[in-house]
Structures are given as C-alpha cells and as structure tokens.
Amino acid sequence: MAIPCGGVGSSPPVHSALTAQSILGHTRLEKIMKKKVVLAYSGGLDTSVAVQWVRESYDADVIAVAVDIGEEKDYAAIQKKATDVGAVASRLIDAKEEFVRDFVFPSLKANAVYENKYFLATAIARPLISKIIAQVAEEEGAGAVSHGSTGKGNDQVRFEASFGALNPDLEVIAPAREWGMTREQEIDYAQQNGIPIPIDLDNPYSMDVNLWGKSIECGVLEDPSKEPPEEIYEWTVSPQAAPDTPTYIEIGFDQGVPISLNGDAMDGVSLIEELNQLGGSNGVGRVDMMENRLVGIKSREIYECPAGTILTTAHRELEAMTIDRETMHFKQQVELKYSELVYYGLWFSDLKKAIDAFVNSTQENVTGTVTMKLYKGSCVVAGRTSNRSLYSYEMATYDKADAFDHASGKGFCEVFGLPLKVAARLRMR
Question: How confident is the model at residue 191 (pLDDT cuts 50, 70, 90)?
C-alpha cells in the first residue's frame, strides 16, 4: 500500500531538515539575540511594574521610551527611573511640538469632544506615542512593543490599533492585561520588588497628563455618588476660590489654528501652557463625566482641561461667524463621528484621514479674534471679530440701517411652508 506523502515512513521534507550542528548553532544564536521589547514608559504604576514583569515573564531586554508631550514636571527623573527599575536602556523623546501641530490642532479644528464633555487629551496622545514607539522598535531592531494599559480600558485599543496600522508585524505585549493582578496586588508587587511608584493604597488615583488635559480615576472616584475630593485637582482652583473679578483674554486664529494671545504671537505649545495656567487659576476646565468606554462599560472620569475648554469654545464661536449655515450644520454631524474615531483609537484610519480633509477645507475662513471671559469656573465668549465674517449688520439690525427686504418674507414663508399645506389638505379630505 502506498504511503501518502508526509505520512508515516515518508522521508522528512528537505526544507525541514536540521543537522545537530545547525540546531546547536540556532540555540546559541537565540541566547545571543535576546528578545527586545520597546515599552511606552510613563513612570506610573503600571509601566514601572511592567519593566520587571516583562523581563521575568518574557526573558527580554526592555527598552523604555518616555515621550514628553507636556505638563509632566520631571521627565528626566522618569527617564532615570526606567533604568533604576530594570530597563536596559531608557530614552526620552520631546514630542510637544509634534503633538500640538499634528494631533491637538487638527482635533481642535474638528471641535473634537467625546460625548460633549471629554476633550480627548489621552486619546489623541496615544497614536503619537505609538508612532514613536514603533519608530524606536525599528531603530533598535526590536520585534515587540509593549504598553501599560489594562484589559478593560480604552488605551489598549488605541495603542494596538495604532501599532497595527503603523507596523502590522510587531508583536504587542500588554502586561497589565496579562498578569491578572488587581490594583492592590500590583502595588504589593511593586513594593515587594523595590519598585518606586507614585501611588499607594492611601493615594490610589490613576492619572494621565499631557498638554491638552489631565485625566484622574480610581479610588473614591469609582463611586459616582461621591463628589470628587478637592485634593485630586492640581491644575484648577475651586471655582469658589477663584478671583472675584473676571479675566478677559483675546485669542487670535488663522484658518482655525490659534496663533496669538492678547495680541502677542505665540507658538502652539506656549499658548496652550499659558491658557492652562490662566484657565486653571479661574477654575475653568473641570469635568466630571459618566463615560461610555469603547469596551462597553461605563466609567466615572474626572478631567482637567483649561486650555481645551477655552480654545474649543473660542473656535466654535469664530466658526459660527465665518462658516455658512449648511457647511456648519453638516460639520457638526461630522464632528461627532470624528470624536468617536479618535476615542476608539482609529486615528490612522482612512475615514479619519478623509474627515480631516473635509475639516481642513472648512477652516479656510476661520480667521479672526475671539474675546473670552473667564470667571469662577465659567468660560464664555465676550466678543468676536473677523475680516472673513458672514455677519452683516445691515441685514441683521432692526434700526433705520436695516437693508433686509421685509416684503420678500411673505413669498419665502409661502414657498417654505407649501409642503405642510399640501399634506394638511390631504389629511382633511
């Protein structure tokens, strides 16, 4: 009886044959070529524990990469801490300008606010961090990348969807999703292994910070019925403790991009930093939100976002003056989808790219200045001017300068309401 090819008794395929010498050489090569993992490192609990855990669990060399996207006060200490906890190398990359230019301002042009409350600070930072981590992996010849996100959060999706879009061949390691530790066990693990962490069981808050905003969760905040304790806020004073007189500021825009503050030209990073300070000192930018996470659960999130609140409010006011009605109404629909795509981690998707093209086209006339009034937690427009304005005093006024043809209103009402008349007569038959 003939034996099928590859069955019992058949000769091994030529391509799978390995001599003892080649097997030995392969084993030695594996020992020399130790696995390299590039970790997105923040210096917080999850990523600090991840360095040690990845080394032990994957027998790998960990290269920690901290990305400076603003508002952390001591990135040099974060960089040093990475090697202290076991990374073979630690890199610090200043990406503030790229963050503002390529991520914050495109989102601002789209008025990207998830569920009308979240200004997407962490969400827009993750694709940039992913891009940098993927670049470092290529430079270092690493086949794997890692992040500190948990298995029920949004950031795991943002990181991994971005890695997949940028380099689909990268292996992704997610320690916090794999190790199965509770937050208390994670803190214990850190203490047992001598890993310095910024929190303990008495201060259990998890925070993420960049120029565009700060997020705060865990601890007592997990009870939605409890008011957030004042101690969690670092950027904003309590509105009750804010100055008793309002602060007025004037923001200049050029094609949807903020370029000046109170008449002084400023680069994007400096302008956002200054607005965070001005807004925070007036109690502007606090958000307490019940949020629908991508994975399907609701979570209670606290945000501080003074600059985001001020700039988005001002930008919308300038758009209202310079964009025609139909484009503006359609853009508002697009903004909802844009915010969802960014929140869901699809920054590098084709749809997001297409929406960016539309949004950019709407910003051609969004140029002018907006005066904002900051007062005890509120942020409201006080005035706006633009040489691209579609507002006409002669058309809008009811005084003697009125240039609107009131007689044309009768015909307009007749034609506009005609379908309703036709339907009403049909129902009356």
Answer: confident
333 has a pLDDT exceeding 50: yes
- Given a cut of 70, whether residue 378 has pLDDT beyond it is yes
Among 42, 90, 146, 206, which one carries the catalytic annotation?
206
Length of the chain: 429
Phi and psi based region of residue 111 (left: phi greater than 0; alpha: psi -120 to 50; beta: remaining): left
Inform me whether the pLDDT recorded for 426 exceeds 90.
Answer: yes
Distance, C-alpha 241 to centroid of its chain? 29
Active site residue 155: yes
Residue 177 annotated in active site: no
Residue 146 annotated in active site: no
Instruction: Give the Cα separation of 101 and 260 in Å (integer).
Output: 15
Of the candidates 117, 71, 377, 386, the residue with the CA atom closest to the CA atom of residue 247: 377
CATH superfamily of 29-202: HUPs (3.40.50.620)
pTM for the whole structure: 0.88
Laid out side by side, the sheet with 213-217 consists of 206-210, 213-217, 298-304, 286-292
**Which amino acid does the sequence have at 367?**
T
Q: Given 3-state DSSP classes, what are the helix, strand and coil percentages for the chain, each rounded to the nearest 5?
A: 45, 20, 35
Higher pLDDT, 194 or 421: 421
In CATH, what class is 209-385? alpha beta
- pLDDT value of position 197: 74
Residue 206 is a catalytic residue: yes
300 and 289 in contact (C-beta within 8 Å)? yes
Q: Specify burial of residue 193 (Cβ count, 10 A radius: 0-12, 13-18, 19+).
A: middle
- Closest by CA position to 41, among listed 4, 75, 3: 75
User: What pLDDT, on a 0 to 100 scale, did the predictor assign at position 200?
Assistant: 57
**Which position among 42, 149, 155, 384 bears the catalytic label?**
155
Q: Spot the catalytic one: 48, 90, 126, 215.
A: 126
- Residues 42, 46, 90, 91: which is the catalytic one? 46
The number of helices, as runs of H, and strands, as runs of E, in the chain is: 15, 14
